[in-house]
Design a protein that fits this description.
By secondary structure, this protein is α/β, with parallel strands linked by helices. It is built from 17 helices and eight strands. The protein has helices at 8-39, 54-61, 109-115, 134-145, 157-167, 174-191, 212-222, 225-234, 240-251, 254-264, 275-289, 294-304, 308-312, 318-321, 325-338, 340-349, 363-389, and strands spanning 42-48, 84-87, 94-98, 123-128, 149-154, 199-201, 357-358, 361-362. A six-stranded mixed beta sheet has the order 2-3-1-4-5-6, with helices on both faces. The chain has a two-stranded antiparallel ribbon with strand order 7-8. Helix 4 (134-145) links the parallel strand 4 (123-128) and strand 5. The longest helix has 32 residues, at 8-39. The protein is globular and about 85 Å long.
Length: 411
């Protein structure tokens, strides 16, 4: 045998060692990215004067009613006497902080931020149920001085609209009433020295109405990176735009989930058949994100006087109806057959991925499965909301287009 000739056995061994090192390195990097994403914290401060509805707002933003387990205590008098953090029921890294009312004897505006540990929060939402006053303006100036974002929310707007409707039965215009309230709030804050105040009109009991979408858009625009993603996942599913943005944010991380699922079972000390349970865990988290799990549907039924059965009947996707391992395997097989465009692109751009197959599951099949599940779940959620609210404000569209399988999210 020629000294320069390499044995076939040596080639196989070298290939195995090199491939294992590459796979391990890639797996560790992907897992680090996913862990960072899942551990990113978001702390939101809810403040304002006593009686402004802070606790009810905290509950509404967490998708809870005022009488559900884990809700913030509410009442007609000041109920928040100390800073209290409430963990999001579906995202444990997100906390909404119900701060004591400003201007009360125990919490004066000039000392307020120090008393509530102001450095802890990512941004502030300042509530008022009537006019904004000097206390609100003073607090805003202090928040701005420490380079934190703040947003003014005029709460209980549904109450004001109904009062105007009773007083002006024939001349009532909701749009005019809302514009007058908004301009009055802005004027009051400007007179108190707040430059270009952003005011949002909300009802804690009807978040899908009024200015919630505008507030949502500004919060998302003002955050970056992983905190923006976490905020999107934490917001209640109440408008089509929220649902679509949540879906697109999740899609930016599908490739990481798919790759992690496929490679982990070829690594040492991992069972070879662990990828189906991992996919199930990811899909179940998607279900919770879109409010399609049984607990979320039950909570929505209580708020909207629907039955859980009638809401669940709006779910039409295969995995939405039956999220089982058998169904997942069926969709995986279909995804493997229809994913040639994705496979071709993956093979050209990232050749190593075209060979990643673990437990009979390819990266392309897992990637296709998760993308389609997000499309299907978002459509299911829109149908559920339309049935729950039966109102045009939800803005649900029944149109559905299958995404181009060749489009590859690689962020």
């Amino acid at each position: 045998m020629c000294a320069m000739e390499v044995r076939e056995l040596d080639l196989v061994e070298m290939s195995s060692i090199i491939q294992s090192k590459v796979v391990l390195e890639v797996s560790n990097q992907i897992q680090s990215l996913l862990t960072s994403l899942e551990t990113t914290t978001l702390d939101i401060a809810i403040t304002g004067e006593s009686g402004a509805g802070k606790s009810t707002f905290v509950n509404a933003m967490r998708g809870l009613g005022d009488e559900e387990p884990g809700c913030a205590k509410t009442g007609v008098t000041e109920t928040t006497m100390q800073t209290t953090g409430y963990i999001h029921p579906k995202l444990p890294t997100v906390q909404l902080w119900d701060l004591p009312g400003i201007g009360t004897p125990n919490f004066q505006a000039d000392q307020y931020l120090q008393q509530v540990n102001f450095e802890r929060y990512d941004f502030y939402i300042v509530l008022a149920s009537e006019r904004f006053k000097e206390n609100h303006a003073s607090l805003a100036r202090s928040i701005r001085a420490m380079n934190k974002n703040f947003y003014f929310v005029r709460s209980k707007i549904d109450r004001d609209v109904e009062a105007c409707k009773r007083r002006k039965k024939t001349l009532f215009s909701e749009e005019q009433v809302l514009d007058e309230i908004r301009q009055d709030c802005i004027s009051s804050l400007e007179k108190a020295g707040v430059e270009d105040p952003k005011v949002f009109l909300l009802s804690n009991f009807e978040l899908h109405k009024y200015d919630f979408q505008k507030l949502h858009n500004m919060l998302v625009d003002d955050l970056t990176g992983q905190k923006r993603h976490v905020l999107l996942l934490s917001l209640p599913n109440i408008t089509t735009e929220v649902i679509e943005k949540k879906k697109e944010s999740l899609k930016r991380h599908v490739w990481k989930k798919a790759l992690s699922t496929c490679i982990i079972s070829v690594l040492p000390n991992h069972p070879v058949d662990c990828n189906i349970p991992m996919l199930m865990e990811t899909l179940q988290s998607y279900q919770r994100n879109f409010g399609l799990d049984d607990e979320s549907l039950l909570a929505l039924s209580r708020k909207t006087n629907n039955t859980p059965y009638s809401l669940k009947a709006q779910i039409q996707s295969m995995l939405g109806k039956d999220l089982s391992e058998h169904k997942v395997q069926t969709v995986l097989r279909d995804g493997a057959k229809s994913g040639q465009m994705v496979a071709g692109l993956v093979g050209t751009r990232v050749p190593i991925l075209s060979h990643v197959i673990a437990g009979g599951i390819s990266f392309v099949a897992a990637y296709t499965l998760l993308n389609r599940a997000l499309d299907d779940f978002s459509q299911d959620t829109q149908r559920v909301l339309k049935a729950a609210f039966d109102e045009d404000e939800v803005g649900i569209s029944q149109q559905y287009e299958v995404p181009d399988p060749g489009y590859f999210y690689f962020d």
